[in-house]
Amino acid sequence: MLSETEIRFYRASEKPFGAFSNLYRREIEFEGEVFATSEHAYQAGKARKPEVRKWLMQAPSPALLAMAAHGLYYWDVAPGWSKTKFDRMRGVLRAKFTQHGDLMALLLSTGDARLVECATADNEVNRLWGEVNGIGKNMLGVLLMELRGELRSGGPKWDTLEAAE
Questions:
Q1: From CA 40, how far away is CA 106, in angstroms rounded?
Q2: Could you report the per-residue pLDDT of 36-92, keeping only the tens digit for each?
Q3: Which of 22, 35, 3 is nearest to 119 (CA)?
Q4: Burial of 32 (0-12, 13-18, 19+ CB in 10 A)
Q5: Burial 13-25 (b: 16+ CB within 10 A, else e)
Q6: What is the pTM of this model?
């Protein structure tokens, strides 16, 4: 078990903690469908129209998928997305880390360290899901730490978070 107080991650290719990134290439099953990455599973819930969802899922990489999804027009986004996105991410992360024993072991190996997605580009999305220069809500890190606690205790301990914009 690590004794570090903070573990920073961002790029999916970084060893070993790049696996915490949603762009990390590992298939997951979510809501009865198999997705190439957790980013795919998450973003699949964002599109209002089936043709927009299909277009997103055909992106050639998880990074391009994320860019395309963040650029959707308001009318292409599922109603209530800002209120449901954190619950969806909770479910996606639970699927990712419970379907792959090595990923679960990696998450549990972090002990009580604070997990931080550290982005370099300063924008609203990066400050919501991670931190840029120490500023941001770090929601991906928060949800990973909550999941780590749930896995450790053997049961769900997911409190509903208020939707942050």
A1: 21
A2: 999 999 999 999 999 999 999 999 999 999 999 999 999 999 999 999 999 999 999
A3: 22
A4: exposed
A5: eeeebebbbbbbe
A6: 0.89
Rounded Cα gap, residues 118 and 134, in angstroms: 8
Q: Is residue 41 part of a domain?
A: yes
Instruction: Say which CATH number the domain at 39 has.
Output: 1.10.357.40
Secondary structure class of 26 (helix, strand, coil): coil
Domains: count for the chain: 1
| Pairing label, strands 114-119, 131-132 | parallel
CA–CA dist 4, 52 (Å, integer)? 42
End-to-end CA, the chain: 34
pLDDT tens digits for 18-37?
999 999 999 999 999 999 99
25 assigned to some structural domain: yes
Tokens of 38: 């957790």
